[in-house]
C-alpha cells in the first residue's frame, strides 16, 4: 500500500509561489510512489481563532473537515510563503483551529499526533522563505507533528518554475526530491496509530 501524503500551500493568493511549490511537490511525491491528495485552504474558510468563539459555537465545520482529512493521511507536505520573516496568517490560523480538535463526536481525533511532516518555502527574496519555516517547524512540533529535517527553500520564486510548475534549478529540484524521499521514508518508519 502506498504512503498517503496530504499537500497544501500556505497561501491562496492568485499566482502564489507556494501554490507552484505545492504542485511541484505533488508531482515529485507521486513520481516517488506516494498517493497524494492536494487541497487548497481556500476551500476551508475559518474565522480568526478565538477561544470565546469556540466556547460559544464550537469548532467550525471547515476545521473539522480538515482534521479528518489530515488524520486520514500518513504524512503532510506544507508549502509556505514567508510573511515578515514568519508564518502567513492564513496558515497559522488554520493550524491553530485544527490543533483545538481532540474528538470527532465521541471518537478521539488528534490530527497532528505522530503526523510526519515536511516543509517547503518560496520567496522572491534571497532568504527563500527559510525564516518562516523556522517558526512553522516550531508550531508543528508544539502540536505533536514529527517534522523531518530535510526541507526545500526556493529563492527568486517568480522565475523558479517552468510552465508545468516544475523547478528549473537543479539544486532546488534535488532539495525537493530529497525532502519528498525522506518524508515518505519517515512515514513508513513511524506509522500513525
Automatic annotation (TrEMBL):
It comes from the Bacteria. InterPro entries: Flavoprotein-like_sf (IPR029039), FMN_Rdtase-like_dom (IPR005025), NAD(P)H-dep_reductase (IPR050712). Pfam families: FMN_red. Residues 3-157 form the NADPH-dependent FMN reductase-like domain. One of its GO terms (cellular component) is cytosol. One of its GO terms (molecular function) is oxidoreductase activity. This is NAD(P)H-dependent FMN reductase. It comes from Paenochrobactrum gallinarii. The lineage of its organism: Bacteria, Pseudomonadati, Pseudomonadota, Alphaproteobacteria, Hyphomicrobiales.
